[in-house]
Amino acid sequence: MDLLKKRILEDGTVLPGNVLKVDNFLNHQVDAKLMDQIGAEFARLFKDEGVTKVVTVESSGIAPALTTAIHMGVPLIFARKHKSLTLTDNLYTASVYSYTKQVSNDISIDKRFLKPNDRILIIDDFLANGQAVQGLLEIAKLANVKVEGVGIVIEKSFQKGHTMIEKSGVRLESLARIASLDNQKVTFVD
Ligand code: G4P
Ligand code: NA
Ligand code: NA
């Protein structure tokens, strides 16, 4: 998606540790118009997959997932991050390890919101090591729902997530694919 790549080059900054900071249009301040265009693009890409629900993880995934859900005319579900203390009988739960923060967090979706005939599209803002997506794939398995695809706004193609999803056999569409962030410079795939 050229508009997105242009925006990353204009407004993204590369931090030490191969982190792309995009908090002026995606991760803190949100460019609502751009999110709408991103949602329209995901809806176009996955229009023939019979998607019944868009699924993401709070919080940064919600903006692009919501606009996708609007364009597809289906509900959005965001998995919640929580510490497993209270009753979890009514939840589908998976553990997600964050390499950047070096902590594991549980993510959960209430059983009422995923039913066996659902066909879900997973949307997230970033794909790095793929732990968040893997957690959602686990939840989909627990809920016995079909995953029709994964849509990512910004993929760091040099990290493990891309290969992990490819191996799982699920269709992956990333709107911007970053080959490298070396020398504080964004280089796209192709
Ligand atoms: P992953 O395995 O799910 O791909 O992510 P990883 O543990 O590597 O990264 C942890 C968090 O950092 C994730 O957000 C992920 O989206 C985000 N992240 C990874 N690489 C980058 C990057 O280069 N730039 C930015 N801006 N974010 C990155 P999270 O903490 O789970 O979600 P949220 O609380 O922000 O919604
Ligand atoms: Na994030
Ligand atoms: Na995210």
Structure description:
This protein has 5 helices and 10 strands; from the N terminus they run H-E-E-H-E-H-E-E-E-E-H-E-H-E-E. It has helices spanning 2-11, 32-45, 62-72, 131-143, 161-168, and strands spanning 13-15, 19-21, 53-57, 76-82, 91-98, 103-110, 119-127, 146-156, 172-180, 187-188. The strands form 2 sheets. The protein has an 8-stranded mixed sheet, sandwiched between helices. The protein has a two-stranded antiparallel sheet with strand order 1-2. Helix 5 links the parallel strand 8 and strand 9 (172-180). Helix 2 (32-45) packs across helix 3 (62-72).
Secondary structure layout plus pairing:
Elements: H1 2-11, E1 13-15, E2 19-21, H2 32-45, E3 53-57, H3 62-72, E4 76-82, E5 91-98, E6 103-110, E7 119-127, H4 131-143, E8 146-156, H5 161-168, E9 172-180, E10 187-188
Helix pairs in contact: 2-3
Bound molecules: guanosine-5',3'-tetraphosphate and sodium ion (2 copies).
Guanosine-5',3'-tetraphosphate (G4P) is lined by residues 19-22, 27, 59-61, 98-100, 125-132, 156, 161.
Could you say which structural class the secondary elements and strand pairing correspond to? alpha/beta
CATH domain fold name: Rossmann fold
List SSEs in N-to-C order: HEEHEHEEEEHEHEE
Radius of gyration based on Cα positions: 16 Å
The side-by-side strand order for the widest beta sheet comes to: 5-6-4-3-7-8-9-10
Which CATH C-level class is it?
Alpha Beta
Shape: globular
Count the domains: 1
**Distance separating the two termini:** 13 Å
The low-confidence parts are: none
Percentage of residues in strands: 25-35%
Helix residue percentage: 25-40%
Bound molecules: guanosine-5',3'-tetraphosphate, sodium ion
Total strands: the figure is 10
- Average pLDDT works out at 96
Sheet of most strands: 8 strands, mixed
